Amino acid sequence: MQAKVGDRIVIKAHKVGKRIERDCEVLEVHGADGGPPFLVRWGDTGRESLFYPGPDAAVEPYDTAQPAA
Amino acid sequence: MRIIDATRRSAVAVAPDRPIAEVAQLMEDATVGAVVVVDGDDLVGIVTDRDLVRRALAHRLDPDARVDAVMSTPVVTIDAGADLRDAYRLFDAHAVRRLAITQDGRFVGVIAIDDLLMDVTADLVAITRPVTAEVLFGHHDVPVPART
Fold it and tell me: What's the mean pLDDT when you consider all of chain B?
């Protein structure tokens, strides 16, 4: 998996029988060629950690075409 | 099947000096039951939700205590290209529920015994389905042609 700074990573998980989603923002790319590990900030809490994505994770690229202010 | 293809979940890593309260919150953030502890590129330990209960909460450890005070070490590792059967042997030999996956000596992920259990269960369903169908719906034998 490759990601860029600003991309969002969504993790789809199961927790006691229900499907839940978590997301984080890529702050730094530590691997070669845009690969993991990524330093990420978790969406709900702002806490940071290194993240090694598995098959439960998908990258949502950051849209660089931001509307003008 | 290779180990790296059998893992079903993402992994989270923290530095050894992170407070245990923050590690517990990260487990909730990322919906993981274990966090790997890395010092630079070096894998130095693993801490599970069970470790936090038994080694921290049960001993009323300060929430700001460093995570390396409660982590398990050394971590049992398996190469990303190893066969699934190698994981079975390691789980059996070391009585652990998670193995750290490494590639070229660097940590790349975690495989849990639950991942293997799900694979075994899926295989079991696949091989028992035709037998179950036969029991429930009877045989569909082609009749033997009568001799003329």
Answer: 90
Number of domains in chain B: 1
Domain carrying residue B43:
3-112
Q: Is residue B144 part of a domain?
A: no
Annotate A1-68 with DSSP letters as a single string: ----TT-EEEEEEEETTEEEEEEEEEEEE-SGGG-S-EEEEETTT--EEEEE--TTEEEE-----PPP
Please state whether the peptide bond connecting residue B145 to the residue before it is cis, i.e. omega within 30 degrees of 0: no
The answer to the question of residue B125 being in a domain is no
Q: Which CATH number covers residue B90?
A: 3.10.580.10
Q: Interface pTM (ipTM) of the complex?
A: 0.82
Give me the pLDDT at residue A68, please: 46
Confidence of residue B124 (pLDDT cuts 50, 70, 90): confident
Contacts of A35 in chain B (CB under 8 A): none
What are B130-144's pLDDT values in tens digits? 888 878 877 666 777
Number of cross-chain residue pairs from A and B with Cβ atoms under 8 Å apart: 62
Q: Cβ contacts (< 8 Å) between B26 and chain A: which residues?
A: 42, 47, 49
The pTM assigned to this predicted structure is 0.81
Is residue B33 within 8 A of residue B143, CB to CB? The reply is no
CA distance B11 to chain A (A): 5
A54 CB neighbours in chain B (<8 A) are 7-11, 109
Residue A59 clears pLDDT 70, i.e. is over it: yes
B91 touches chain A (CB under 8 A): no
Closest chain A CA to residue B31: A13
